[in-house]
Task: structure prediction
Amino acid sequence: MEKKDEVLNRSNYSNPYRRAGGKKYFPANIQKVFSWVGKAISQFQMLENGDRIVVGVSGVDSLSVLWVLRERLRWISIKYEILSIYIDLGFNGDLGKQITDYLKAEAYDFKTLNTDIGIQAHSPANRKNPCFFCSRERKKILFTFARENNCNKIVLGHHLEDINATLFLNIIYGSSISTMLPRQDFFGGKLTIIRPFALVSKEEIQKLATLVGIPFLVNPCPSASNSQREEINRFLDYFYKKDRRIRYNIFRALKNINKDYLPG
Result:
């Protein structure tokens, strides 16, 4: 007779750590992510009992936050409903199939929407800033989907380094000291975007994804490796490697602004 653990581990996408009980059953790396996510949710008041949330999935980071939010429901006191949506941008490749195969295998409630946003973003009309166009159009779809499905929260997979990179992007290219918010309300609070990975590093997310069987995914976007954001990421990676504290110092600096030493 097969042992219970052997049955749990059979699927290509199965979570080998799924047990009855709390997060103590998970390896230390995963427990660390749960702790940072719990801290972010509490600090920024991201989730409440009865929320109906939709997770926009597009890659490893967003699939990981989807996994974390569902697993947390096993032991936390509040309850929320989770939907997910994958917006196919129209590029060639296996990304869409890999994502939908995983979502099906893990029995997530999801919808796929096929678009040509990626193609439009790289047309001559948008050549100067394809990332802005793509982000704007995807956000429109997410807002519409949330409204049509009675969701009051949209979850995105942005992590600590994404928030830091956006700060530097806005300084360098936008003459603005601003960045992504861990929680941002729209339409008078009727709809809220939350980023539960706001305090989690990309390295920790990658470790979690490997441990729980989230598939390795390659972004087919032609701007993925040569965008302004990637230039900033490479710049910041140099400092992150010198001192792990720097990624956290940049984030903390956003709440530690000394206006006496800034021009008016």
